Amino acid sequence: MRLGILDQEKSFIEDFSACQTAAYIESKEVFEEKDVNDLDALLICKSQAFGIKEICEWVIKLNKLVPIWVFTSEELLEEKNVYLQLGVCGVFNGSYTNEEISLSISNSLNIMKSPIQKKQRPKQPFQLDPSKLSLTVEDESISLTRLEYFLIEVLYERKNEVCTYEELASTLFGQSFDPGDDAGQYRVTNIVCKIRAKLTKANQGKQELIKTIRSRGYMLNV
Hints:
The protein is of the alpha/beta class. Helix content is 38%, strand content 19%.
């Protein structure tokens, strides 16, 4: 990591450069604004010749280009707040050792450069929404017709159990269902085919969610 140090009186940079720490930082003296182009961070040292006015001017011009820290031998709270409000990453005073400064900057740069790992919320494996007549499988929402939704709802209430063609047809079609007529089974099969087609289109490989039990009916495989 390359750290630029702006220290007009050179009272800090020599000691800092000679400091050997576990978090090694290659330091480079900065004289002009263009010197920060190849740097990972900038440390500005306050001195009699380079006071709060000059520091603020540098911070305003460069804080969007490179992370900036400020070192001052004084411990003035109001002045520290000014620097922080302008966007510096931190302010060190005379109580910090060179090693502490080096480690603090190094740790901050490592965090800035490392990719942020977002905590993923667990996927919902199966969810029904009666208000929208929709089915959600692993965060994929699938819109259903009224009959399609009711069929899935019946299967879900008895998940991992077999629902016969007759039971499904009777629930879906009520009085219009004739137990001795194959039309009821055909209508149930037709609805299941449409649901499977929607599942396949929205979420590849989820067509086996509804399992066919030969000659008997269907079972929701959740």
